[in-house]
Amino acid sequence: MEGCLNTEKDVDKLIAKFESYKKQTHQTFEQLTQHIEKLQNELNVQDASTGLSASHRQLVTQTNKKLKSVGQKISGQHKDLHSSVSRIGKTIDRNFDAECGSINMHEILADHTHHSLFNRAICEHFYRQGSVSVAESIATDGNLEIDDKWRFPFIEMNEILENLQNRVVDPALMWSIRNKVQLQKEKSNLEFKLHRLKFIELIKLGPSHQHLAVAYAKKFQQFAPVQCQEIQQLMGCFLYVKRGLTESPYCDLLSEKMWNDICSDFLRDACRVTGLSVNSPLISSFSAGCQALPALLAIKSVIEQRQCSGALSNNDELPIDIDLDSCQHYHSVFACPILRQQTTVKNPPLRLVCGHVISRDALTKLVSGSKVKCPYCPVEQSPNDAKELHF
Ligand SMILES: [Zn+2]
């Protein structure tokens, strides 16, 4: 981050220099043009047959000299600008590690399956963002088989979001009614919130539309068991139809936040219902990578010094732990207290009868005959009674 700030500072300085150079040059050219035009006018009134007078000749020579010196000055400034631009390159070299690419693990993407998964992640990212044509080009170039069933939820989600951003509620409402059962399972109140927005819009139209608001209010009946308090609030709005909600105790219902919230609520619920993560996996991996990069570069230099280059590339685990922000933690991990290793799919955590948890490899090592003694309590038990745990 510090590197970015340093570079930004230098770039800002350069931009300021460019601006002042541009302004100065423009002024100089203006003055020169005026000067030459004046000279031209004076020469034009002169009788051509008599030739130039001595004073005019001197004037032309002076102008020539001036032009030359201005030209030299401008080219000097131009050279100075050039060197400032090349200094930015040096700032970038100084603040960033040019060797970032060297920690790429090319072997990982050499595998066809991994490569197509990677392309799929990029493709999904663009579908998520609503850049359908970009996503489709990537799918074609990467020979990805994208069926409509897979891409449809992204396209639909984007269309609905776009509508919500333009304060058009109906597509989202239709979607939430269609997915009512799943949304209820997720304890989502999206449908209620969408109806509430439509209701408020009707209230805002004033007494002439009050009958429509009353008719719409009947839709809230179905939500009464869960949203009772919110519905009471909405009914209170009827008292302020004439005076307007702005000065009422319910003015919060008019806030911009309601619309921003509904967009994020819809995105979250739509992702849950369709089984997608709320954040783009590509962005999540990228930001995790950015955080891990300094540590990875440090490991790389240590590995190079100790000449054990295989440690980084031949392993699907990093040789050290790299701490990421808590928002990057997606599931808890379990490290075996006996072997001091993180458990994996092949070596899962097992719960012993006594309640203590160790990894399968540790259990195998501890078995003697058909019995195993818990290394903590130590209760003797059959290794077959241990149960696999899933975090
Ligand atoms: Zn035990």
Automatic annotation (TrEMBL):
Cite the CTLH domain residue spans from the record. 153-210
Q: What is its main location?
A: cytoplasm
| Gene Ontology cellular component list | cytoplasm; GID complex; nucleus
Any coiled-coil ranges, and where? 22-49
Residues annotated as domain RING-Gid-type? 336-377
Q: Which domain of life is it from?
A: Eukaryota
Calcium as UniProt keyword? no
Q: What is this protein called?
A: E3 ubiquitin-protein ligase RMND5A
What organism is this sequence from?
Answer: Ciona intestinalis
